[in-house]
Inverse folding.
């Protein structure tokens, strides 16, 4: 079995819905952890996954105390699967929160970035930034001249807003052939992406293809 067979198996339509959701969640988790910027919130996937988690918790609670060995064994399997889903969801959310903490002002001042947040994340980002600004003002900003108190100052052509480094190197695996050549900005490097290829490359050069599903981060 080569890489093409593995990728075809992972993307197969004949898999049970629970297995597909687990694979999609794992991919979203790996991609979010590897990408230097906040990625769009996978609303449909997370709705299915969280619904499945709630259903499994209800099943476990209903069957607790059942002395039937077959039922107990079934509960062990359900609980194992439940913990796997819960671990991925928690780690996925922690990764996104860490990015929000680091780049809150950049995300909130950019409509494209703000649109990538879930409703709960948007509320968290606003609260986080409000508390941070209040802390800065009470600690030291209030002692500065009014013109120097802004956290989003761009005087001298230099922005104070910290942004993610889009030229961070990432590992990417190609899922579908890409017809147009990939050009790495600022270099003379260009190449074609073919299914199964693996590259170490700048995120900025492949972000659109990862977003569209032509490639995935690993």
């Amino acid at each position: 079995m080569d890489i093409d067979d593995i990728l075809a198996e992972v993307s197969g339509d004949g898999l049970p819905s629970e297995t597909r959701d687990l694979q999609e969640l794992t991919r979203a988790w790996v991609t979010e952890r590897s990408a230097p910027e906040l990625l769009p919130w996978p609303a449909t996937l997370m709705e299915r996954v969280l619904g499945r988690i709630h259903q499994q918790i209800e099943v476990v609670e209903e069957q607790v105390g059942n002395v039937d060995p077959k039922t107990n064994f079934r509960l062990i399997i359900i609980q194992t699967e439940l913990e796997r889903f819960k671990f991925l969801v928690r780690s996925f959310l922690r990764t996104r929160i860490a990015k929000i903490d680091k780049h809150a002002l950049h995300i909130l001042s950019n409509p494209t970035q703000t649109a990538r947040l879930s409703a709960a994340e948007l509320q968290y980002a606003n609260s986080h930034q409000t508390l941070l600004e209040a802390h800065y003002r009470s600690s030291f900003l209030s002692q500065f001249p009014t013109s120097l108190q802004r956290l989003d100052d761009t005087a001298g052509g230099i922005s104070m807003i910290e942004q993610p480094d889009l030229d961070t190197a990432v590992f990417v695996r190609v899922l579908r052939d890409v017809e147009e050549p990939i050009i790495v900005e600022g270099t003379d490097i260009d190449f074609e992406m073919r299914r199964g290829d693996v590259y170490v490359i700048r995120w900025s050069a492949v972000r659109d293809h990862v977003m569209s599903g032509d490639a995935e981060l690993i």
Summary: Strands lie at 169-174, 178-183, 190-193, 198-202, 215-217. Helices lie at 3-10, 17-34, 43-63, 69-108, 111-114, 119-139, 203-212. The CA atoms of residues 12 and 20 lie 9 Å apart. The first strand starts at residue 169 and ends at 174.
